[in-house]
Amino acid sequence: MKTLKPFSSALVASLLLAGSAHAQSRMERAQDRHEVRQNAAQRSDDRMDVAELERVLERFDAARGRRNNAAELAAVDNRLRELLRAELAESRAETSQAKAEARKEWGESRAENRDDVRDARVEAASLAARKTIARELNSLMGARSPAQLNRKRELIVELVRLGKQEVRQDRQEQREDRKDVRDNRHR
Q: Basic and acidic residues composition bias: which ranges (predicted)?
């Protein structure tokens, strides 16, 4: 009887560990699926943001090409101001989220840790670039000289470029998340 008790304790401990590992694996898979859905929504939102910035650029170019365009340029300035406010808020949230994910998942594989840290750095750099552009665009709001309008156009084009770059990064992130889902499924 005495030899059965240590054996049964070891069996119970093994079963508990196996159950715990299985539960953790299910939680990881659920988290991975959530990230895939979240990234798909983010990518869709980023594509819409790029399309809207491209429309603003078209409106800006059309307004610049007309005479007596002060009202049209003012409308473009107002829309651009709204978009920048939303973009900065979104970029701040994405930066915070990426940093939190990098901290939260520190115990993962080295490759996943590197990906999370890289994502956080990319988001922080994107936010810094948008802030710089926003400050300069803010100083050009209402400006009408040809040089100022040229510079404003360059900055809008840079915002479009940043947006397209973010969409490409979203695609890469989505590929990584799908790989994580596959890897966790095979564990």
A: 100-117
Residue type, 40: A
Better-scored residue on pLDDT, 65 or 29: 65
Structural contact between residues 170 and 43, judged by C-beta atoms closer than 8 angstroms: yes
Residue 182 falls inside a structural domain: no
Q: What would the two tokens of residue 61 be?
A: 């170019």
Cα-based distances in Å from 53 to 59, 72, 127? 10, 16, 17
* 81 inside domain: yes
CA gap 21, 144 in Å, rounded: 65
Q: Are 32 and 184 in contact (CB under 8 A)?
A: yes
Cα-to-chain-centroid distance, residue 169: 8
CB < 8 Å & 24+ apart, contacts of 67-74:
70/144, 73/144, 74/142
Q: Count the domains in the chain.
A: 1
- Indicate the pTM of the whole model: 0.74
Q: Which two tokens stand for residue 147?
A: 């040089």
Domain that holds residue 155: 4-176
Q: How far apart are CA 18 and CA 173, in angstroms?
A: 31
Predicted confidence at residue 12, as pLDDT, reads: 63
